[in-house]
Design a protein that fits this description.
Elements lengths: L15 H21 L3 H12 L4 H21 L6 H10 L15
Helix pairs in contact: 1-3, 2-3
């Protein structure tokens, strides 16, 4: 029995409400890390990105992309959060997601 071809996922297929919820959840993770000071590298990275000229939203977005990668690794890998890999990733930001601050739309 042949199965119908699967539709490729496209950006347009994403549900805006789900995206908003995911963004809010990721931001909550970052906020919790900042509030608890754990890992301290999150606050250090946020401050460094701001000093490099990134807006607060851009800095949160970069850190959030790293959080997203770690969530994906968690589910695809061993099911354990790899703190060392996360801290190394924080130190490497804005790479691989961006290399320089972009003009903020509000400026």
């Amino acid at each position: 029995m042949t199965q119908p071809p699967q539709k490729k996922f496209q950006q347009d297929d994403q549900d805006p409400e789900i995206n908003q919820r995911l963004q809010a959840a990721i931001r909550a993770v970052i906020d919790q890390q900042l509030a608890e000071g754990q890992p301290k590298e999150t606050a250090e990275t946020l401050e460094r990105l701001l000093d490099e000229g990134f807006s607060l939203e851009q800095a949160y977005s970069l850190i959030g992309q790293l959080v997203s990668l770690e969530i994906g690794e968690y589910f695809a890998g061993t099911g354990e959060f790899n703190l060392e890999r996360y801290i190394v990733g924080l130190g490497e930001l804005p790479a691989p997601f961006g290399t320089s601050p972009e003009p903020d739309e509000d400026d």
